[in-house]
């Protein structure tokens, strides 16, 4: 698919971090899980940086001057609470001057067994004509990601959008590619082919939020 980047298709140290967030013998170490998510976020952030806009600037060193290409502007980093926080921190390591946006989403079941995605909180700077990097560790059905994107549009229309994910499902990827703007870039550290009846990615890694921050009620 155009503008879809599956990062573990090439050999790199990223695969070590993916292995550790998946492996039941390792992922139970909460701090290590968080750190590995941060590392994955930083790697994705670096890859995204190759597709951003730059301008040349002359700087002064202790010995002379030289020209360097720097970002024309900082992107806005948006994440989905609470599971997305560790991945977000990794992106912040790369874009340490970037403003942040936070949004919450959860599955809201109905009596007829249908499920809606409810978005009940967001805090965001203006997105008008900005580059948006929207991150979440898991892309299962894709409906939460798209619902959050739509809610963020109340803060302005981005000029470019990048979606950053640690583990995605094939079904979820197809959904967001179909629904997001055509020029959106999707950055997925690893893509799995299946989901189970509860919409958990298989083989996946389990609940990213619980692994990073402990179980919830």
Polypeptide structure, described:
Helix 1 (14-22) packs antiparallel against helix 2 (30-49) and helix 2 packs across helix 3 (85-94). The longest helix has 20 residues, at 30-49. The chain has helices at 14-22, 30-49, 85-94, 143-152, 170-179, 208-213; strands at residues 4-6, 54-60, 65-71, 76-81, 100-109, 115-123, 131-139, 160-169, 185-192, 194-195, 201-202. The radius of gyration is 18 Å and the shape is globular. The strands form three sheets. The chain has a seven-stranded mixed beta sheet, sandwiched between helices. It is an alpha/beta fold. It contains six helices and eleven strands. Helix 5 (170-179) links the parallel strand 8 and strand 9 (185-192). The chain has a single domain (4-51, 73-106, 116-206), classed as 3-Layer(aba) Sandwich (Rossmann fold). The model has no long low-confidence stretch (mean pLDDT 94).
Which strand order spans the largest sheet, edge to edge or round the barrel?
A: 1-9-8-7-4-5-6
Query: How many β-strand runs?
Result: 11
- Name the beta content range: 25-35%
Stretches with pLDDT under 50, minimum 5 residues? none
CATH fold-type name: Rossmann fold
Q: Classify the helix fraction into a percent range.
A: 25-40%
Any guess at the CATH architecture? 3-Layer(aba) Sandwich
Rg over CA atoms, rounded to whole Å, is 18 Å
Mean pLDDT: 94
Helix-strand makeup class = alpha/beta
User: What characterizes the major β-sheet?
Assistant: 7 strands, mixed
Q: How large is the count of helical segments?
A: 6
Order of helices and strands: EHHEEEHEEEHEHEEEH
Number of domains: 1
Large-scale geometry: globular
Query: Termini separation (Å)?
Result: 39 Å
Which CATH top level class fits?
Alpha Beta
